[in-house]
Amino acid sequence: MPRKNFHIVLVASVVIAVFPFVWLPLMSFFSDWNYPNILPGVLDVQQWKLFFSGQQDVRHSFLLSLAIATTTATLSTAVGFGLARTVSFGSRRKQGIFWSLLPVTISPVLFATILAFYFNVAGISGTVGGVMIAQLLIAIPFSIIYFTAFWTPRVMHMEQLAATLGSTPYQTFTQVVLPYARPFLLVCFFQTFIISWFEYGLTSVIGAGQVQTLTLKVYLYVQEASPSLAALAATLLILPPALLLWFNRQYVFKPLGV
Amino acid sequence: MMEVRNLAKSYGQQPILRNINLIVEQGKTLAVLGRSGCGKTTLLRIVAGLISPDNGKVLLDGKDMEGVPTHLRNAVYMNQEPLLFPHLTVRQNIAFGLKIRSISVQQIQKEVSTMLEQLGLQDHADKWPDQLSGGQRQRVSFGRAIITQPSVLLLDEPFGNLDTDTRQQMQELFLQLTRTYQTTSLLVTHDLKEAILVGNETAYMEEGELYFYDSPAAFLADPRTGGASELAFWKQYMNNNI
């Protein structure tokens, strides 16, 4: 590719990548943009005022999404970490990985449709708990697959070495395995948080319209043709992942020299 | 002191260890020579408590180890790889075994400083494992094991990954440390020279059976150890070339 074209492609790629981070927050400050105007009308902080005063659904959705994603990420990281060890060091590693891959390979909406029947019977459809369980059914398998790359024979040998040095299983876990796994745990938490945070298909089917997460709200506002509210919700939607990305870069990848 | 009585282990129909009996006196090293797959590693792992025997007993300092978990045996198992804990510095790695025994900080600092000096690693104390050479990592690994004053040190071809010079230096360091700390050791290797240099006693393992020798000469003379053929080779080489 000629140098000039390369620069054009590079600049275009950067613009495309950065555009949503600039445009969406900007859009959230326009409260009046009606057809057929090409540009938005009034520039104000009305939506944000309402958000911070708590008079808007979007704030509730933001906090709800934050709670669901944090809980899902914490639980799936912890459970996946333990289960991946069993899968990796067990005699049926291949079967374990196969069954873990299964929910991840099915489309979330299809998976949700299958689950919906059982969730209805159990009476947890349309509840926050039901949505969380449904999301865990996706996030935990992801976490197991992710951590099978961590639980290598080398880690097993380190555990055994620590034991021969006199370390109890608890000491080995807290003083050898956990510190060694710290960057892996943080990355997995980040990934599963993102899975939960942006989850749409499962949440809309299992939530049955009763659990309005921020992702669902963005779609709702777009359908309602409320661009400023949609922009506000979308801005909030990209905020935690952006913060987590920065945190990972600062505290996970930098110390690793990545 | 370490003693093994009538130790046996099979995997399925395949016997790995057949009626092994051995005694290693306090402060001595038994070097076991054997080819890959002869059962050497299984023997070490059973003594360490990492796997269970089908039959037989392991006694450490006179105590029967049956049912005693690995962390209470005081038998340190060292692999071919140094396996330093990557999140700990050299000093912290060496201190690991003392720290988990809740020894006072002052005592740990004193013992670790002495060990660092003996290992010749004073200037590397605050480095991370990935900043060390292969030989330095193996030194730290030795220090970390010996500082805990184990009942027995189990060495599974610990110098196998090192170049010839470093290997020789490590063998000398091993002898010096085990003499200083009076460490009882069981070392398995497939290197004939190493077995003779490092072991106070030597044995040969084949198909799960252990053979002992009265002297290094008897060990070398046994055709199974390969000593005689090695000697013959060098003799012939010297005659032909020098």
Q: How would you describe the overall organization of this protein?
A:
The complex is a heterodimer of chains A (258) and B (242). With 258 residues, chain A is an all-alpha fold. Chain A has one domain: Orthogonal Bundle (MetI-like fold). In chain A, 78% of the residues lie in helices and 0% in strands. Chain A contains eleven helices and no strands. Chain A has helices at residues 3-27, 46-53, 57-89, 93-105, 108-122, 128-148, 153-164, 169-197, 201-207, 214-223, 227-253. Chain A is globular and about 75 Å long. Chain A starts with a helix and ends in a 5-residue tail after the last helix. With 242 residues, chain B is of the alpha/beta class. Chain B has one domain (2-83, 151-241): Rossmann fold, CATH 3.40.50.300. Chain B is 38% helix and 24% strand. Chain B has helices at 40-48, 90-99, 105-119, 134-146, 164-181, 192-198, 216-221, 227-241, and strands at residues 2-11, 14-24, 29-34, 55-60, 63-64, 75-78, 152-156, 185-189, 201-206, 209-212. In chain B, the strands form two sheets. In chain B, strands 6-7-8-3-9-10 form a six-stranded mixed sheet, with helices on both faces. In chain B, strands 2-1-4-5 form a four-stranded antiparallel sheet, covered by helices on one side. In chain B, helix 2 (90-99) crosses helix 3 (105-119). The model of chain B has no long low-confidence stretch (mean pLDDT 92). Chains A and B meet through helix 7 and helix 8 of A and strand 6 and helix 2 of B.
